[in-house]
Amino acid sequence: MTDSVTKPAGSDPGPLTVGISSRALFDLDESHRVFEQEGLERYMAYQRKHENDVLGKGVAFSLVRKLLALNDDGMDHPGVEVVLMSRNSADTGLRIFNSIEHYGLDVQRAVFTNGASPSQYIEPAGAQLFLSANEDDVRRVLMAGYAAATILPTAIRENRSTQLRIAFDGDAVIFSDEAERIFKEQGLEAFSDSERRAAANPLAAGPFKPVLEGIQRIQSAYPMEENPIRTALITARSAPAHKRVILTLRAWGIRIDEAMFLGGREKAPYLRSFGADIFFDDQTIHCSIASREVATGHVPHGVANEPARQGTEND
């Protein structure tokens, strides 16, 4: 798989816009089973029959609620917009909007594609991030140059703090996969040597750099010590490979509140201690373990997700 170049963040100070699928926002497991086992016609009938039954909260529900709450604090920042992007039809999507209304979520825009991939509407929707339970849709969005993640099944453990806490992996998520590619192809020693020699050269951007920039535009409206958003970089890198990461973020003018260089240690305990509302990582093994503790989005981007490479890991 060849990943396209990530689109640069523009100067438009508009809201941080998140596209989200109905299965990421709500618990549609029962409905999805009807679709898979009995077909589209029975699924449509099922949704109409239950359209006044409120759906349970999905894996990304808490994230969306906290994002939207930022619009109600009276502060002067670009704000957040959430756009529902669903493979449902408008008819079967009525149950979803009824549930949105029940929970008081300020979601006003929606794209219903009646079975087609909503990926082609990311650009006109103005979304910087797309969250979905459908990996094919996520891959399409990443290939188009936008941040996207597959929301994994998770035992929902809501972080009851009002502060929004988001954790990111580094290589192939915030940064490009250039360093990780050296590790995969040449080994740890070559990776460490390359990162030591290139420490002063900023890494290229990964798909989530524009998301971090959008978050920082909101964070900048608040005092650093009393901020409603807290971010963390949680990476398997260790010294001396940490230096290039720090200098890259400095060159970009992007602040990360907490940074953990774990040297290959398991990330889940750190995510639990950080209290992440969501964690984004490109490695399936890290995502699988992390999803037992916190909401997790797999980013199927970069060398680790090329067919011949899956199953190996570093960052």
Number of domains: 2
At CATH level 3, the topology of the largest domain is Rossmann fold
Number of strands: 12
Structural class: alpha/beta
General description of the model:
The chain has helices at 22-25, 29-38, 40-49, 61-69, 94-103, 122-125, 135-143, 178-186, 188-197, 209-219, 242-252, 268-274, 284-290; strands spanning 16-20, 26-27, 56-57, 80-86, 109-112, 129-132, 147-151, 164-168, 229-235, 258-261, 278-281, 296-298. Residues 1-11 have low confidence and may be disordered. The chain is α/β, with parallel strands linked by helices and 315 residues long. It is globular. It has 13 helices and 12 strands. It has 2 domains: 16-151, HAD superfamily/HAD-like (Rossmann fold, 3-Layer(aba) Sandwich); 164-305, HAD superfamily/HAD-like (Rossmann fold), CATH 3.40.50.1000. Helix 8 (178-186) packs antiparallel against helix 9.
Task: Describe this protein with a few key phrases.
35% helix; alpha/beta; ten-stranded mixed beta sheet; 13 helices; disordered N terminus; Rossmann fold; two-stranded antiparallel ribbon; 315 residues
